[in-house]
Design a protein that fits this description.
It comes from Thermithiobacillus plumbiphilus. This protein folds into three domains: 158 residues, Rossmann fold; 172 residues, Rossmann fold (3-Layer(aba) Sandwich), CATH 3.40.50; 79 residues, 2-Layer Sandwich (GMP Synthetase, Chain A, domain 3). The chain is 33% helix and 21% strand. It contains 13 helices and 17 strands. The strands form four sheets. It has a six-stranded mixed β-sheet with strand order 2-3-1-4-5-6, sandwiched between helices. A six-stranded mixed β-sheet has the order 8-9-7-10-11-12, with helices on both faces. Strands 15-16-17 form a three-stranded mixed β-sheet.
């Protein structure tokens, strides 16, 4: 098993910068704003031949009892309980603060090995305030600079050296399982659904739109199967996106869609389906991701309300008629377990491979049932098809005059292949390629030879002969 190392400290000391440096990613949002990180963020790193799991946490203020800061503190306490070791991140330039002493007091009682990483120590030299941090009684402070990458190897050598060796190396080719991105507008219940599917309060749930700011990647196992859950920030209409932090959150959501195998679009059964819901669905389809629609807050609805939201689905999302729809209550757990059946089915379908012979048999049957229309008095010819990739399933059709093939016939072919291959709910991307006519012989290219003085003289007009 990989050792789990939690990064803990008061707000704005550079924990997320250190997380990105140790994992060699940009998964954690970084900005000069206290309290930016709110949920736990997991990532993997490696030093030499040894790998480890790093957990980024929000700013830890143990004495807070109410509000979002108290929820962040609860998340941090849970990260400490899960960790094999804790890196206590401090600010060399800000010096030792009262909040640092409160965090140190909690860490001493936790029973976990604690290592002091004093960040922002670049260029201090002899002015590094080592004695101040010695007073915490948590061991030798290690000066680092997460922003510049200084002291990273020294820090991790000390941390990993104090931990027992890994029990076993991961098996070659071992996969992490399907990645599930949970999408939706703010406050539709995405984090509640994630916690319900995981069976624990893994991400912060708070009655305030925009609580989740980052895309949180959570590896887990259910009934012997591995998955990675991605809780994303709620994406609002562009006119309502304010500030650089929220813009970064939107970018993280887009990246999460690209990383996902299956996307779950969460809708609120008590509100009208908006253009933003359709936009999120379009983003997932454009990325080629299999999509599940989860209509949340289905409990205690009157029958006329349920009929109304079903009509909304047909009117506002007509391009998702093939996607499976689940009516759930994330708060009470109704229907949530059924989501895994669709996830497993769509994940398996998105990675299937088909033989060229099988695909061409389906194409021949489709052409026999419904030929392409005449365009300009001439028939468009579809010659053969083969698979060009998976996740999404990509089918490449070769033929003549592909640029003139009507959109309606393209949709007909897509629906035919989806039905014949049993890919309900899976995105099928059709690519049409123009084939060159093998019977047309290109005109020979004339090669011009450089002219010499003799050829120039021969080409000059000769004077008329004298009589």
């Amino acid at each position: 098993m990989q050792p789990v190392i939690a990064l803990v400290g008061r707000p704005n000391v550079g924990k997320s910068t250190l997380f990105n440096r140790l994992t060699r990613t940009r998964d954690a949002l970084v900005a000069d704003l206290p309290g930016l990180t709110r949920d736990r963020q997991y990532g993997t790193g490696k030093l030499g031949g040894r790998s480890y799991l790093v957990v980024d946490t929000g700013g830890f203020e143990p004495e807070q009892k109410n509000g979002i800061v108290a929820e962040m503190a609860r998340q941090t306490r849970q990260a400490i309980d899960e960790a094999d070791a804790v890196i206590f991140v401090l600010d060399a330039r800000g010096g030792l603060q009262i909040e640092d002493e409160e965090v140190a007091s909690y860490l001493r009682r936790s029973g976990r090995p604690v290592f002091l990483a004093v960040n922002k120590a670049e260029g201090l030299g002899e002015q590094f305030p080592a004695s101040d941090f010695h007073a915490l009684g948590l061991g030798e402070p290690i000066p680092i600079s997460a922003a510049h990458g200084q002291g990273m190897d020294e820090l991790m050598e000390v941390v990993l050296g104090a931990l027992p060796p890994e029990d076993a190396e991961p098996l070659p080719g071992e996969e992490e399982g399907p990645r599930i991105a949970v999408l939706g507008r703010p406050n539709v219940g995405k984090s509640t659904l994630v916690n319900r599917m995981l069976g624990e309060e893994r991400v912060i749930v708070f009655d305030m739109p925009g609580t989740t700011r980052d895309s949180i990647y959570i590896p887990f196992e259910r009934q012997g199967k591995r998955y990675v859950m991605i809780d994303t920030a709620g994406v609002r209409r562009r006119a309502r996106v304010q500030g650089g932090i929220e813009k970064l959150s939107v970018i993280k959501t887009i990246k999460a869609i690209e990383d996902a195998t299956v996307a779950i679009l969460v809708l609120d059964a008590r509100t009208e389906i908006s253009e933003q819901d359709a936009h999120l669905a379009g983003m997932a389809l454009q990325a080629g991701r299999a999509l599940i629609i989860a209509v949340n807050k289905w409990d205690n609805l009157e029958q006329h309300q349920r009929d109304w939201i079903k009509t909304q689905l047909e009117r506002r999302l007509p391009f998702l008629t093939y996607a499976p729809v689940h009516f759930i209550s994330a708060l009470h757990g109704t229907g949530v377990g059924d989501l895994y059946k669709s996830i497993d089915k769509l994940a398996a379908g998105s990675s299937r491979h088909f033989s060229t012979a099988q695909l061409n048999k389906i194409l021949a049957d489709a052409l026999a049932a419904h030929q392409p229309p005449l365009v300009g008095g001439r028939r468009i010819k579809l010659r053969y098809v083969h698979q060009g990739g998976h996740n999404p399933i990509t089918l490449v059709v070769h033929g003549t005059r592909m640029d003139e093939l009507p959109e309606a016939y393209r949709r007909y072919l897509e629906a035919t292949f989806r039905k014949a291959l049993k890919l309900e709910g899976v995105t099928v991307r059709m690519v049409f390629k123009q084939g060159e006519n093998p019977f047309v012989t290109p005109a020979p290219t004339r090669i011009m030879k450089p002219r010499t003085e003799r050829s120039r003289a021969a080409s000059r007009p000769k004077p008329p002969r004298k009589p």
